[in-house]
């Protein structure tokens, strides 16, 4: 009789049992005692397939070791060949990326004192391995500060609406979130949509990778634009931090963060001057916190999102000298036309009388021919 003992390391388990094997528990794993034949004749090869469940293996594990030993009740001449240690190398197949989009690329505020707007960030996990914890940081320009001058608050920030696979996420910031009672339900992810948040998530993202590229087409004129971002001198930024996880061990798992803000247009008067466009940019980044030894591979680990606000459309003013030149040119053309007509005798009375006489002669000739 011949058989084999297989030691399976923790936390690997059997996906399904084998009819020729008996399972027993060990301190640090499982042992399978599998029957191969009685007798196992010389020259015969016996294959044994064991299905394993690897879902309990932690992300970042580099390898697993399986001990395999064969036995027989017959006399064995080569006992040293009966044991083998199998090292199974593991690869972590996971990465994380962040995308972003302003709900509207361009807002028109005209004479409004403030303007509500929303920006949406999406964090995507790709690959089959799970990501336990990821941290999303979103930097937002909130204040304009100059020494010896009064601080100017650029915007108001409402509590972010963040979800991972339909479950709410926790977000925090050093700045105070304003009351959500001031925001209409249709402007943010409202409570009524929470039971069906998975569908809401899909609607919010709307394939951000596609529409993010579409938003890059419009660039406002620099001479009319006030740029507000974390690289602008005198702009103070604060960070909203959201913790997400675990991201499921599915080919794609994502979190959505919707941030509602109010731009304080009336407070920007001293900064705007003659400018009528505001170009406000936030920036987001994502970092994998757990597992700690998971290295980043290719992907978008940071992104910027811009919202553009346009006020009164400025009309181009025609210079006075251009108007004067056009009038003079018109008068000169009229004078040239009159001179030409005068030289042709258009205004002389004698020419008119000769023309009438010529017409009378023509009429008389026609009459004589008719009577003749």
Automatic annotation (TrEMBL):
GO cellular component term, pick one = integrin complex
One GO MF term on file is: integrin binding
Membrane topology (UniProt): Single-pass type I membrane protein
Principal localisation: membrane
Q: Return one Gene Ontology term, BP aspect.
A: integrin-mediated signaling pathway
State if Nucleotide-binding is listed as a keyword: no
Q: What is this protein called?
A: Uncharacterized protein
Query: Which parts of this chain are annotated as the region Disordered?
Result: 189-208
- The chain positions of domain Integrin alpha third immunoglobulin-like read 116-290
Domain Integrin alpha second immunoglobulin-like, by residue range, is 18-88
Enumerate the PANTHER family for this protein.
INTEGRIN ALPHA, INTEGRIN ALPHA-PS3-RELATED
What Gene3D superfamilies would the database entry show?
A: Bicelle-embedded integrin alpha(iib) transmembrane segment (1.20.5.930), ntegrin, alpha v. Chain A, domain 3 (2.60.40.1510), ntegrin, alpha v. Chain A, domain 4 (2.60.40.1530)
Which SUPFAM superfamilies does the UniProt entry name for this protein? Answer: Integrin domains (SSF69179)
Q: Which residues cross the membrane?
A: 318-342
**Which UniProt keyword terms apply here?**
Glycoprotein, Integrin, Membrane, Transmembrane, Transmembrane helix
Query: Which species is this record about?
Result: Cryptotermes secundus
Q: Where in the cell is it found?
A: Membrane
């Amino acid at each position: 009789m011949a058989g084999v003992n297989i030691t399976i390391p923790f936390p690997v388990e059997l996906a399904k049992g084998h009819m020729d094997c008996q399972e027993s528990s060990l301190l640090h794993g499982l042992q399978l005692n599998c029957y191969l034949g009685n007798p196992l004749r010389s020259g015969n090869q016996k294959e044994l397939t064991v299905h394993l469940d690897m879902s309990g293996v932690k992300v970042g594990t580099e390898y697993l070791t399986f001990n395999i030993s064969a036995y027989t009740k017959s006399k064995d001449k080569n006992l040293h060949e009966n044991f083998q240690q199998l090292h199974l190398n593991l690869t972590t197949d996971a990465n994380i990326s962040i995308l972003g989009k302003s709900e509207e690329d361009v807002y028109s505020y005209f004479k409004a004192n403030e303007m509500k707007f929303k920006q949406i960030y999406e964090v995507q996990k790709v690959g089959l391995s799970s990501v336990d914890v990821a941290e999303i940081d979103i930097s937002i320009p909130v204040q304009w500060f100059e020494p010896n001058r009064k601080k100017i608050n650029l915007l108001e920030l409402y509590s972010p609406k963040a979800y991972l696979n339909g479950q709410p996420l926790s977000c925090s910031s050093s700045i105070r979130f304003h009351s959500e009672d001031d925001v209409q339900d249709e402007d943010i992810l409202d409570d009524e949509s929470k039971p069906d948040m998975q569908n809401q998530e899909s609607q919010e993202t709307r394939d951000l990778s596609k529409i993010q590229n579409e938003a890059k087409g419009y660039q406002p004129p620099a001479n009319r634009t006030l740029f507000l971002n974390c690289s602008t001198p005198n702009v103070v930024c604060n960070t909203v931090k959201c913790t997400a996880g675990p991201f499921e061990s599915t080919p794609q798992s994502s979190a959505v963060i919707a941030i509602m803000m109010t731009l304080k247009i009336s407070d920007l008067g001293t900064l705007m001057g003659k400018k009528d466009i505001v170009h406000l940019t936030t920036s987001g980044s994502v970092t994998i916190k757990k597992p700690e030894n998971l290295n980043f591979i290719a992907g978008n680990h940071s992104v910027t999102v811009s919202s553009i606000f346009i006020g009164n459309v400025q009309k181009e003013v025609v210079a006075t000298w251009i108007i004067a030149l056009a009038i003079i040119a018109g008068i000169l053309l009229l004078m040239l036309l009159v001179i030409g007509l005068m030289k042709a005798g258009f205004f002389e009375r004698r020419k008119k009388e000769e023309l009438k006489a010529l017409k009378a002669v023509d009429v008389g000739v026609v009459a004589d021919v008719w009577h003749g």
